[in-house]
Design goal:
Elements (H helix, E strand, L loop, with lengths): L3 H19 L6 H8 L5 E5 L1 H4 L4 H8 L3 E5 L6 H11 L5 E5 L9 H11 L2 H12 L12 H11 L4 H10 L19 H12 L5 E3 L4 E2 L5 H8 L9 E2 L7 E2 L4 E4 L2 E2 L1 H30 L1
């Protein structure tokens, strides 16, 4: 049993940690307000495949257009990703979303964001009892404690320049074991419902882009699905093809969805090509409509 004084101490420590350390910079309201003022921008939201998989500066150079990457940890929750994107979106912008397959709609980090956005103590209490009080710390057997701390410090980089610099300076060699055992190529029912609701309510015009996948991780069944175009997508328009976003292990940083610098550059250039084609097609449609 946990005594009341200890419970009180842990709760206050949790609140202090959340306010000081655990809220990422992208949720700062003034920062979001300043981003909204940028016209004709590309907004990209999604899980860590965005953090590790897109170089916004290279994409800006390729498109000659401002790019805002509101990258998340997957467990921040799809709804929170869209709520943040909605805050910076204005007419003329293009909003892209790239979610990793499988997973849950929201985990412990999403509960933290719920509290930050609402400032409702009930959300903090939910997080406290669901995750902080009882949840055991996950230990990854593939990495030493020092290596694991470094990996997670990358997630905590509030500044995109700092984030990309950290990745460039880190010569990471350890990767997952790739045995062609396959991955889940589908999305949770909850995520699909959230996207559908946002689309129907016209809160945000979303365009889908596929996440990067490691070729060596895919099973024969995965490859057949991808080649036949039967991979599940979110209920929105896509401008990419999953088959064009498969990467060998020499492009992987440490995990199937995480690319190293070479991988980021390769994916970013390919994405810029797909975006140029989409923007050109959209411009032609608008031109024809005005005649």
């Amino acid at each position: 049993m946990i005594s009341l004084p200890l419970l009180y101490w842990k709760f206050n420590k949790l609140q202090d940690n959340i306010l000081k350390d655990k809220i990422r910079y992208i949720y700062n309201s003034q920062h979001l307000d300043s981003l909204k003022l940028i016209p004709n921008k590309i907004i990209i939201v999604g899980g860590s495949n965005i953090l590790f998989g897109i170089d916004k500066y290279l994409l800006e150079k390729e498109l000659n257009r401002p790019v805002i990457t509101l990258a998340h940890v997957r467990t921040d929750g799809t709804e929170n990703m869209l709520r943040i994107a909605e805050k910076v979106f204005q007419k003329g912008d293009i909003a892209l979303i790239s979610l990793e397959y499988g997973g849950t709609s929201k985990g412990s980090s999403g509960q933290i964001i719920d509290y930050y956005l609402s400032q409702n103590k009930i959300d903090l209490i939910k997080y406290f009892f669901q995750y902080f009080l009882w949840e055991k710390e996950y230990v990854n057997p593939n990495y030493s404690k020092k290596e694991e701390e470094y990996r997670w410090s990358i997630y905590g980089s509030f500044n995109n320049d700092l984030f990309l610099t950290k990745l460039r300076n880190q010569n990471f060699r350890k990767q997952e074991t790739y045995e062609n055992n396959g991955i889940e190529l589908s999305y949770s029912k909850k995520d699909i419902e959230i996207i559908e609701n946002y689309t129907q309510e016209n809160k945000l015009v979303l365009i889908g882009i596929h996440p990067p996948l490691c070729k060596q991780k895919l099973s024969k069944a995965n490859i057949q699905k991808i080649n036949s175009g039967n991979v599940q997508t979110l209920p929105i328009k896509y401008i990419t093809n999953q088959n064009n976003y498969l990467f060998d292990t020499n492009y992987i940083f440490d995990y199937s969805y995480h690319l190293n610098q070479k991988g980021r550059e390769k994916r970013t250039v390919k994405l810029s090509q797909d975006l140029k084609q989409f923007i050109s097609s959209k411009s032609n449609q608008n031109h024809q409509g005005s005649n």
